[in-house]
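Hi L.,

As promised, Ankyrin repeats (3 copies):
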Amino acid sequence: MSYEYELFDAVLDGDMSEVRILVDKGADIHEVTESEQWTYLHHVFMSLTEQTPSESIQYLIDQGLDVNAIDSYGNTPLIYAVRQRNTEGMRLLLESGADRMIGHWNGDGMNALKMALKGKPYLYDVVKLLLDFGADPDAKREGGRSVREGVAIIAGVDPKIKELIEQYASED
């Protein structure tokens, strides 16, 4: 019997006792979807309206799920966590090794810092956390703009975020 949906719901709800019961029954916490190449660490950051409890995220990390797994769209769990504006989830990922891929570009030309400024709300804490863990505000793809260049022209960016980015000097 497959416990895929039950396990997914228990993880999203933060019901760790149910997660452990399902894993003991044979549910595969290391399952990767065939077409999208999503792990549970990708899944927990998919919702744009709800955030998975940090206990669930830490459990997945403790079970050895790859914090730098790249899905078929080129996204890491960190990029999804940024899109979700989940600062606690971001911190757990970054402290567990996701900082090694903080500059990774997905298939749409986004890295974690650019994702922080794609769509509102633009959150100071999200940007600061990424910068503190080494995100480069001057990184850009050929023909593109850096985050530093982008915030100068994007309407609605909090002046505090602009000031924060300016504090991180270019290393050129």
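The two ends are 56 Å apart (CA to CA).

Thanks again for sending the construct details.

K.
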